[in-house]
Amino acid sequence: MTELSGRRERKKAATRKKIADTALHLFLERGYDAVGIRDVAAEADVAVTTLFSHFASKEALVFDLDADFEQRLVQAATDRAAGEPLIPALHREILALVRHCTAEGAAPIWRLIDETPALREYEGSMRLRHAESLAAAIAADPALSQSTTAGRAIARFAIDAFSLAREAPDPEAAVDEIFLMVEAAWKAT
């Protein structure tokens, strides 16, 4: 039974990836606003209902790793080794995410996002959701004595570090610079 479940999950993941890859290809080729959901479904050879079983909206097709990124951020706070400080763990994870999102080939995707109002708005709401999830994880950690407000602020700073760094000429240096300030803010609370 486990094997079937594993196979089913692999097939679902492959279908999801195929839909997201197809959508991104079409969006980059024709422009986001020129491509409809039916176009993506037809090109990916899936039903529209199948597309919507994997993605809640057209915008979500561009941000197919959203849930993974959110989980990684939360895990950076919750799964750190006993005694490991929070801020270095977040710094490491944000740096890894920035490396992923600034890797070769990512620039056209970010241009698409930056040039499309619906995608910019979706990204903004996604960042707020990630910050709230991270803040909840920080607040739930009994080893951290800072206030809820401090935890929420640090979560927002960490999420904003990602956005600021990806726009910087040297994204990794920007993450390092931002986290020096985040560390100082955390210690000041």
Descriptive account of the structure:
The protein is mainly alpha-helical and 189 residues long. The chain has nine helices and no strands. Helix 1 crosses helix 2 (37-44), helix 6 packs across helix 7 (117-139) and helix 8 runs antiparallel to helix 9. The termini are far apart.
Task: Draw up the topology in text.
Layout lengths: L1 H29 L6 H8 L3 H7 L11 H13 L7 H16 L5 H9 L1 H23 L8 H20 L3 H18 L1
Task: Tell me the overall shape.
Answer: globular
The description of the largest β-sheet is:
none
Per DSSP, what share of the residues sits in E-state strands of 2 or more residues?
under 5%
Report the total helices.
9
Low-confidence parts = none
Computed structural class: mainly alpha
The helix fraction, in percent, is over 70%
In angstroms, what is the radius of gyration? 19 Å
Span between termini: 51 Å
Assembly type: single chain
Order of helices and strands: HHHHHHHHH
Mean pLDDT: 92
* Total strand segments: 0
